[in-house]
Request: fold
Amino acid sequence: MRMRKKRNLIPRMERCAALLVREPWLLRGRWRDEFPGYKELHLEIGCGRGRFTVETAKLHPDVFFVALERVADAMIIGLEKAMAEGLRNIRFMTQDASNLLEFFADGEVDRIYLNFSDPWPGKRHAKRRLTSERFLPIYKKILRPGGEIHFKTDNPELFDYSLGTFREAGFALSEITRNLHENGPVGVMTDYEMKFYAQGVSICRCVATFLGEGEQPAQDDGAGRTEKVDE
Reply:
């Protein structure tokens, strides 16, 4: 669904300038120097209205969060909420995920969140999926060894596809589930996720861990459990 254009977007963005990174390439390799004192750096790709990142940042004040979103009309909602909450451990940027190598140095990111990414159905559009073989090498560059990708989707076809691409790229898979909220809500939900949960839609989730170049992950049978969701 196309995002409706927000009224007065530019002045609203200006009022939130303190939490907006306009030139992220200037911070490449310097995020921890510019924002010291945090134990980890987490990145959400495609943050939408920002509910997940804002609420997670509130729960983890010792972690620094970067929320990336191409559509400013969506992102402004989370940006304004973060400003209203007075959060200091979060920054937003309106950028494309294909340019991540320009914004983060090798091993600079500890965790990546991919929440309800566009499934781009059909083989012709597969390369646009954020879990495609086009993007996974990028994530492997910016993640530290042992860094994780936390992936959630309501689309079972995209989930099966992503499990395959994660394995092929050498990620170790854990916490695999096809019904995350079967026994009640688990972790922080996105706006979409809250809507899906209310409708009884099953949510798929997994954690993909980058072990480091040359490391071979243990085989996974796809029957992982959600014993812990640290979000």
Observations:
- The domain at 29-209 is CATH 3.40.50.150 (Rossmann fold).
- The helical segments are 9-15, 31-34, 51-59, 72-85, 100-103, 136-142, 156-168, 191-199.
- The CA atoms of residues 106 and 142 lie 4 Å apart.
